[in-house]
Design a protein that fits this description.
It is built from 7 helices and 19 strands. With 386 residues, the chain is α+β, with helices and mostly antiparallel strands. Bound molecules: zinc ion (ZN).
Length: 386
């Protein structure tokens, strides 16, 4: 891309919390406005962070202060300018087609880091309509229509052709896309519609009774297509699918997963029942269950069932490093308070709970096992610190 360098002079500087704002005798920079972000670029070796126009004066934000009267070289970042021009010109084409062919008005426009968006005055728009709309846009792009920019005195502006009336006076900047659009606009634009490359709608969202369309044009569209393809390829690799079979296959996978989850739950219940019976064989009124590989939900289920038999149930789960103490309310034991007191004495683990049910969490399995042994011993010997 060609480098255009403007040599000019600093005419004013002011400081605020963002940095140093400079005015130059001439500027190649486009200031933020009309939904289009400001240009980026450089003044000498310094990066231009923002450009804003206040009451007709254009201010450039730098981290450094330059001397008033000094000569500087200003240069815009052409890649960013081209990208913004593409997204903005794409909006002209979208707005024109929506209004002239579908009677839908554009209400607002904005460019974000990843995509751009327009809010349009319709309540309903589906993906079939969007695909049709994209074909119409692509047709205009293929036609390579010239885009002319003109500075016209206000009395030479053809107001009957203006897309939107303007209250500007004096010299008015007109942007015309041949046979499609005639617009008073101060933004930046590409030279022909072919330079848009393509326009892809990426999202349809209902807002305030209208529709917000997000879209990408030019290189953004290429990047999005490549990212989508990469995502899809990784799914195809995992599931051995193709574009034609992937949707059905993903639904199938989901059904299978839900079915498996139901099966696992049933199995867990059966295991819980068997393990509870084993624990209840023991004579002691303190029953211990150690869950080394099972899910925490299963440990909980076993501990609760054991407690329902009238025993004081102590359970541990290795996966989550958690300890549970539960009883059915027939024991004179405030489990939450006791557990807390034991942990306090041990100096590790965090936990607590109610009178009938308490749990604690540990940083290591060694701590978990130590705490379990200590609690079981104290329950059996009746030497609790609470
Ligand atoms: Zn424009």
């Amino acid at each position: 891309m060609e480098k255009v360098i403007t040599e000019t002079v600093v005419t004013a500087v002011k400081k605020d919390q963002s940095g140093y704002w400079h005015v130059f005798a001439q500027t190649p920079f486009y200031a933020e406005g009309g939904g289009q972000p400001a240009d980026r670029g450089w003044v000498d070796q310094y990066e231009v962070k923002d450009v804003q126009t206040v009451e007709g004066t254009t201010w450039h934000l730098l981290d450094q202060s330059l001397e008033v009267g000094s000569t500087i070289k200003a240069q815009i970042d052409e890649t960013v300018r081209q990208d913004h021009s593409i997204q903005h010109t794409a909006q002209h084409v979208m707005t024109a087609i929506l209004q002239d062919r579908h009677g839908i008005e554009t209400l607002s426009f904005g460019i974000n880091a990843e995509d751009a968006s327009i809010e349009i005055g319709t309540e309903q728009l589906d993906w079939d309509q969007v695909e049709q709309f994209e074909k119409e846009l692509q047709h205009i792009i293929f036609e390579n229509r010239p885009i002319r920019k003109m500075e016209l005195p206000e009395d030479e502006v053809d107001r009957t052709r203006l897309r939107k009336p303007t209250d500007r006076t004096g010299m008015i900047r007109i942007v015309e896309i041949e046979g499609l659009d005639y617009n008073a606009c101060g933004g930046t634009h590409v030279e022909t519609t072919a330079q848009l490359g393509t326009i892809h709608v990426t999202g349809i969202k209902k807002v305030r009774g209208n529709i917000r369309l997000t879209y990408v044009a030019g290189n953004r569209a290429l990047r999005m297509t490549q990212a989508s393809r990469a995502a899809l390829r990784s799914i195809h690799q995992t599931l051995s699918t193709t574009n034609e079979t992937v949707a059905e296959r993903v639904l199938e996978e989901r059904t299978i997963r839900l079915e498996r989850e139901r099966e696992i739950k049933e199995l867990e219940l059966r295991i819980a029942k068997a393990k509870v019976e084993a624990v209840l064989q023991e004579d002691d009124y303190v029953a211990i269950h150690i869950g080394k590989t099972e899910a925490e939900t299963l440990t909980m289920a076993i501990v609760e069932r054991v407690a329902a038999s009238g025993k004081i149930a102590v359970g541990v789960n290795y996966g989550t490093k958690k300890l549970f103490v539960v009883h059915d309310g027939t024991h004179d034991l405030a489990t939450g308070k006791c557990l807390k007191a034991v942990l306090h004495e041990l100096g590790f683990g965090r936990g607590g709970g109610s009178n009938k049910q308490a749990q604690a969490r540990f940083d290591s399995l060694i701590e978990l096992e130590k705490a379990m042994e200590e609690i079981v011993r104290r329950l059996q010997e009746g030497v609790l610190p609470c």
